[in-house]
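Lecture notes, continued. The same structure-token format from the folding unit now serves as the input rather than the output. Read the line below as a description of shape only.
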């Protein structure tokens, strides 16, 4: 007789797989990609170098870095039929991530199941899909805002080309800021979208389906949709002196304070601390207001719920940094997805190697069945 194991809601603290890709240590306020401190990588390495680390298990040599950058730069170009599809489907105000779902489905029409592919072919698919994210998302954004689509530049860095295709500009400071953000958000444990992609990969499905499942979870405002909502909270608060009253109202209504608290971290989110330093380099009115509001929110929460500190998470300063770099709020979550595409595909590859389908059970809580009816 099989004995069922009862898991907590949301699978909190339940280990469902082994991984070599990285880990999040919530009590320590630390996370890493493979054997490297992720925040150090975000400060010191290019997006392509960390992408190489996730795909191949090691940071590249100088020669490998140049070759990998050349390869993924060429892969950023999308077929004309995909651009035509976007032109035919994107309308004023279309969410770029929803347009991405359409485009990825079209790119994957001829994909074979991962179960039927060799490892090299799986990795080729992973690189191809992660490479086209910035091109598709930038094109969808420009079409939705009534501007011309910009072609990718294979010779440019991934972060620089994405920013140029999305906004038309790529000043060095803005590219550096966006690249730091992208590296810091490539992967982060078994979050909802990563787990969704791995579940689909465990069935042996094709790469496009795995990515679409991850994107579907990512579209949820409790997951990838938080950066724009965190910045909207800043706008709603206005002057920092309004913060405590605003927090009291949110807490009284049982509302989530977007940009604060995390499912894993019990101390400062290292990604938030990293992006705060990036934001401070701009020394703008928005940044000064954000830091003042952050202090007030933390103090207000501690006042209302003594001993239960909620610190700013990655979404809080992500919106500030992307705004300063010239990206509009509608592109905050898509930019997050540009980074996470690398993490998703790396996780899909790892899960595909396992060869075991993920198939949990559920507890039935409905009315008792009537035999024979």
């Amino acid at each position: 007789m099989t004995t069922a194991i009862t898991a907590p809601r949301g699978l909190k603290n339940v280990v469902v797989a082994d991984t070599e890709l990285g880990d999040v240590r919530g009590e320590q306020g630390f996370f890493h990609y493979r054997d490297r401190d992720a925040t150090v990588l975000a400060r010191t390495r290019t997006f392509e170098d960390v992408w190489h680390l996730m795909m191949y298990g090691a940071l590249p040599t100088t020669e490998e870095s140049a070759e990998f950058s050349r390869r993924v730069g060429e892969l950023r170009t999308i077929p004309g039929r995909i651009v035509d599809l976007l032109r035919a489907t994107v309308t004023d105000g279309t969410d770029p991530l929803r347009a991405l779902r359409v485009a990825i489905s079209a790119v994957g029409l001829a994909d074979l199941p991962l179960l039927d592919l060799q490892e090299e072919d799986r990795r080729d698919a992973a690189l191809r899909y992660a490479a086209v994210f910035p091109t598709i998302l930038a094109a969808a954004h420009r079409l939705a805002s009534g501007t011309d689509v910009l072609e990718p530049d294979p010779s440019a860095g991934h972060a620089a080309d994405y920013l140029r295709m999305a906004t038309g500009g790529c000043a060095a400071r803005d590219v550096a800021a966006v690249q730091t953000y992208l590296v810091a958000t490539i992967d982060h444990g078994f979050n909802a979208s990563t787990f969704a992609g791995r579940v689909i990969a465990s069935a042996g499905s094709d790469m496009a389906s795995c990515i679409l499942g991850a994107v579907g979870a990512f579209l949820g405002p409790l997951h990838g949709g938080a950066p724009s909502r965190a910045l909207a909270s800043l706008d709603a608060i206005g002057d920092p002196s309004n913060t405590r009253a605003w927090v009291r109202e949110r807490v009284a209504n049982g509302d989530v304070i977007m940009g604060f608290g995390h499912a894993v971290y019990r101390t400062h989110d290292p990604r938030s601390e990293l992006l705060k330093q990036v934001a401070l380099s701009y020394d703008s009115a928005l940044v000064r207001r954000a830091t003042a509001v952050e202090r007030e929110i933390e103090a207000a929460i501690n006042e209302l719920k003594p001993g239960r500190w909620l610190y700013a998470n990655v979404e809080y300063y992500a919106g500030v940094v992307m705004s300063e770099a010239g990206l509009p709020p509608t592109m905050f979550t898509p930019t997050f997805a540009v980074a996470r595409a690398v993490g998703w595909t790396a996780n899909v590859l790892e899960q595909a190697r396992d060869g075991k389908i993920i198939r949990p059970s559920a507890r039935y809580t409905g009315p008792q069945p009537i035999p024979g009816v």
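Point for the exam: Residues 229 and 258 are 6 Å apart (CA to CA).
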